[in-house]
Write a structure and sequence with these properties.
Distance between the termini: 53 Å
Helix content: 25-40%
Strand order of the largest sheet: 1-12-10-8-3-2
Structural class: alpha/beta
Number of strands: 12
Number of helices: 8
CATH architecture: 3-Layer(aba) Sandwich
Radius of gyration: 20 Å
Shape: globular
Order of helices and strands: EHHHEHHEHEEEEEEEEEHH
């Protein structure tokens, strides 16, 4: 399967820079802890009280949005005021690489995504560990869908990406017949394997749910040799139908994930999932590829990211800020915005249909 290649063509100089950057950052990442103060646990803000007229007006604004052209104003003035699907992040497996996904979460918030729709509602963390049970994460996805009315989106880095695909297999019924609902507030499984679907209002099993969007970056390679990931050997790049759209990101040179130019066919669908492969520049670092908070500091860079669409040939602006990982952040932000719009519009239409059925007139 062909892959989209982003950024400048790879050179041996670029590849060497990528190798050295990965090694250097892997060694220096623990030092970041000294400069990272613990953030207070978030308190989910109360939903704003709207008049009936304001709620109808917001619904109309949501329905008018173009999912493939979502501006900064659309995000902040419309989407962030309406239904918002949760983002479930999964970080890599080597401590303290979770800080990289913290940076990614901070980027999303700076771009306008509600913070409380990224943080875990129980303990406030920004991402799940790949050492958490995949059954637990699958059960959490089901709980979010039932209780919040919108299907979560998922992003996984390194070993977290392997765990993400494992969750997709469980939701597809491969490896288990039943998945228990997992309550993130109590951090315990509930004694049931069905939810009340917020769309149909009918019971349905967790197995069979379909995530709208998922992305992984830098996944595979050495991490598949870990005992908790052996079952994914030979299966990682085959994506089941439990996700509608999936993006697999690979660095042009990644000695950790064992990616080199021309190696492997990339991710492919097992059935009807829409699967896209994207190659990132060789000088991106496996360890730091999802680190992106810095990209939201420059208004010109934010504008470029918000205007970005896959396949865009518009060069990024000059900036005093580093542009590391720009294409990864821009690609994922485009997809997250698109599916945010689609899911919000779906909820508006569902609510209107239910209201129409309930009305005697």
């Amino acid at each position: 399967m062909n892959a989209t290649r982003l950024g400048a063509p790879s050179t041996w100089v670029g590849r060497a820079r990528g190798w050295m950057a990965s090694m250097r950052l892997a060694l220096l990442l623990p030092l970041l802890l000294a400069g990272c103060a613990s953030a207070p646990l978030p308190v989910a803000p109360a939903e704003p009280v709207m008049t009936a007229a304001a709620a109808v007006a917001l619904d109309e604004q949501l329905l008018r949005l173009d999912p493939q052209r979502v501006s900064d104003e659309d995000v902040r003035q419309v989407l962030a005021r309406g239904p918002t699907p949760r983002i479930v992040n999964l970080h890599g497996g080597i401590y303290p690489v979770h800080l990289v996904m913290d940076s990614f979460a901070h980027f999303l918030v700076a771009m306008g995504y509600p913070d409380h729709k990224i943080r875990h509602p129980g303990d406030g963390r920004n991402s799940h560990s790949p050492y958490e049970s995949s059954l637990q994460i699958a059960g959490v996805v089901a709980w979010y869908y039932e209780n919040e009315g919108l299907m979560p989106m998922m992003v996984g880095h390194s070993q977290g990406g392997i765990q993400l695909v494992k969750v997709l297999y469980l939701l597809d019924g491969q490896g288990t017949d039943e998945v228990a609902v997992w309550n993130p507030l109590t951090d315990r499984a509930e004694p049931r394997t069905e939810i009340i679907d917020p769309v149909t209002r009918e019971p349905r099993p967790v197995v069979g749910l379909q995530v709208n969007y998922a992305a992984v970056v830098g996944s595979g390679g050495a991490a598949l040799l870990l005992p908790n990931q052996w079952e994914m050997i030979g299966r990682l790049q085959a994506i089941p139908d439990s996700v509608k759209e999936f993006t697999g990101f690979a660095l042009d040179v990644d000695l950790v994930a064992w990616d080199l130019p021309g190696m492997g066919a990339g991710y492919k669908p097992l059935g009807n999932a829409s699967v896209r492969n994207v190659r990132l520049p060789a000088d991106y670092s496996h360890v730091m590829v999802a680190s992106s908070a810095h990209l939201a500091r420059d208004p010109a860079v934010r504008d470029w990211i918000n205007a970005y669409v896959p396949g865009s040939k518009v060069p990024p602006p000059a900036s005093d800020e580093p542009l590391d990982n720009l294409y990864f952040a821009a690609e994922v932000w485009y997809e997250l915005k698109k599916h945010w719009v689609l899911e919000a519009q779906k909820q508006v239409r569902t609510r209107r249909e239910l209201q129409a059925r309930a009305s005697p007139f």
